[in-house]
């Protein structure tokens, strides 16, 4: 067995040849292709040890999403590591071990730990504050997360570090709180708002906190904890209730 590895500047001929070898692979995940495409278009494509794998029998066993992204971007001349001559059995162990999480990568880049909620909060903010840029089904690339972290990171860290039980709060609730703090909202009052929602002490029917707490409790009981519609409702209801609370307004019903 002779395994060969080389860095290649991709072009139409090479990409199309490799895709013709894609005869036995997992189903395409559009979200993965789209993330690669955004990296290419934004200039954030970086060559790594993860590239294209071809078996000794001439079958593509790794890299179909990267190749499709290059093709759909019009075959730009990006560099790619191509490893050929691999045993066909290697396909079953590719991507089977521990992957680096977004939080892991943040630690590498910033040389410090970030809150465990950071990736999820940034994803929600991107979805509902940048709807023209990010579709409902898209997932942020790590470089897009870095750009957003530059804007919202200090607010996430300040709020997350002072909450007693952060696991109580769904990501949309935290995201809405982070956005308002980032706009200049008083962190002490935001933290009190979040704490009141969790504890429920002293709340009355005219308080925004009361209505948001009831809504969140009801959504948990119904098991509706995921999906774009529930995320949207949680985000915008939190935003509305929080702004009302910061403005000292009463509330009879919480609708968006």
Show the helix and strand layout.
Layout: E1 4-9, H1 12-20, H2 30-42, E2 52-55, E3 60-62, H3 64-72, E4 79-86, H4 102-110, H5 118-129, H6 142-160, H7 171-182, H8 187-199, H9 208-221, H10 228-246
Parallel strand pairs: 2-4
Antiparallel strand pairs: 1-4, 2-3
Helix pairs in contact: 1-3, 2-3, 5-6, 5-7, 6-7, 7-10, 8-9, 9-10
Describe this structure in words.
- This protein is of the alpha+beta class and 256 residues long.
- 50% of the residues lie in helices and 8% in strands.
- The chain has helices at 12-20, 30-42, 64-72, 102-110, 118-129, 142-160, 171-182, 187-199, 208-221, 228-246; strands at 4-9, 52-55, 60-62, 79-86.
- It has a four-stranded mixed sheet, with helices on one face.
- A hairpin with a 4-residue loop joins strand 2 and strand 3.
- Helix 1 (12-20) crosses helix 3 (64-72).
- The mean pLDDT is 87.
Please sum up the structure shown:
With about 260 residues, the chain is an alpha+beta fold. The protein is about 50% helix and about 10% strand. The mean pLDDT is about 85.
Structural class computed from helices and strand pairing: alpha+beta
Largest sheet: 4 strands, mixed
Estimate percent helicity: 40-55%
Radius of gyration: 23 Å
The rounded distance between the terminal residues' Cα atoms is: 63 Å
Query: What's the β-strand tally?
Result: 4
In spatial order, strands of the major sheet run 1-4-2-3
Task: Estimate the mean pLDDT confidence.
Answer: 87
* Helix run count: 10
Order of helices and strands: EHHEEHEHHHHHHH
Give the strand content.
Answer: 5-15%
Note the overall shape.
Answer: elongated
Uncertain residue ranges: none
């Amino acid at each position: 067995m002779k395994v060969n590895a080389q860095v290649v500047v991709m072009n139409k001929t090479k990409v199309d040849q490799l895709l013709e070898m894609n005869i036995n692979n997992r189903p395409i995940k559009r979200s993965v292709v789209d993330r690669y495409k955004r990296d290419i278009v934004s200039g954030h494509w970086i060559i790594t040890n993860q590239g294209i794998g071809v078996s000794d029998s001439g079958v593509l066993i790794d890299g179909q999403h990267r190749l499709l992204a290059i093709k759909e971007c019009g075959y730009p001349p990006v560099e790619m590591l191509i490893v050929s001559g691999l045993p066909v059995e290697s396909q079953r162990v590719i991507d089977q071990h521990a992957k680096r999480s977004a939080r892991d990568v943040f630690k590498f880049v910033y040389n410090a730990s970030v809150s465990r909620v950071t990736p999820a909060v940034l994803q929600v903010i991107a979805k509902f504050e940048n709807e023209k840029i990010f579709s409902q089904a898209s997932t942020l690339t790590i470089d897009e997360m870095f750009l957003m972290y530059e804007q919202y990171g200090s607010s996430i860290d300040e709020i997350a570090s002072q909450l007693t039980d952060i696991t109580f709060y769904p990501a949309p609730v935290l995201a809405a709180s982070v956005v308002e703090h980032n706009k200049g909202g008083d962190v002490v009052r935001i933290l009190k708002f979040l704490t009141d929602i969790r504890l429920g002490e002293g709340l009355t029917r005219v308080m925004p906190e009361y209505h948001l707490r009831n809504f969140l409790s009801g959504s948990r009981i119904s098991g509706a904890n995921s999906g774009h519609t529930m995320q949207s409702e949680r985000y915008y209801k939190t935003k509305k209730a929080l702004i009302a609370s910061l403005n000292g307004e009463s509330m009879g019903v919480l609708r968006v």
